[in-house]
Amino acid sequence: MKRVFVEDVTGTEVTIRGGDANHMARSLRFKRGDKITAVDGAGNCALLELVDFNREMISARRISEIQKTAVEQSIVLADCLPKQNRFDNIIEKATELGVDRIEPLISERTIARPNNSRGQSKLERWSRIAKESAEQCARNTIPTFGDIRGLDVWLNEISPLDDGTLFLFCWEGEQTTTVREVLRAYKNSGGDKNFIVLIGPEGGFSDREVHAIKAAGGVSVSLGKRILKTDTAAISVLAMINYEFMGA
User: Fold this and answer.
1) Do 94 and 52 belong together in one domain?
2) Cβ atoms within 10 A of the Cβ of 88, count?
3) Residue 173 maps to which CATH number?
4) For 119-146, how does the pLDDT look when each residue is reduced to its tens digit (9 = 90+)?
């Protein structure tokens, strides 16, 4: 069943606007009486029946009780921007793997450094990608985005960490501690299932940055003997979190 994000699904009358309405009416050829699943930014979900169409919006009525999404875990993905458009793929997969917030960062060795106008355009495109991915994978929420900013600025914003938050960062210099070991120790300790995952750029973190990340509470972890691309590393860690904690 088609899933659409709307502003508010808690009322008896619900309006679908903009590109979603246009796509449903013209491309998908929905008609009066068809039913869809609608969710809003608060994680409320309900079944709607389409009532009326015009060029810019579709009117619908709620025909089911409201279901509220239960929060199982919180995941923040902080990723130093990769080259080209590989961040698009990271956003798509991160959304599918349950990330709640995505922080696009610039570190010392980050190559992609969009200016203010390009940065705003990218944020708008990334938000669209996250929305489409959330609809495709039947999520009830869409990841939010932080502004593009420096790694040091972001580290200052999150410090001190909330109690119970596990802050992982992948570092090729880590020779002994693996992601699996840290996740299982956290699980056995009864952690709150709040995660921050930090992924570096193609050139890795500088020694100064590694020191700053650890000072902010980051735990360095290894992903094995191979050097993974930044998008592969992000997906790998998120998949491991899902494996260890989904349904736990």
Assistant:
1) no
2) 15
3) 3.40.1280.10
4) 889 999 999 999 999 999 988 889 999 9
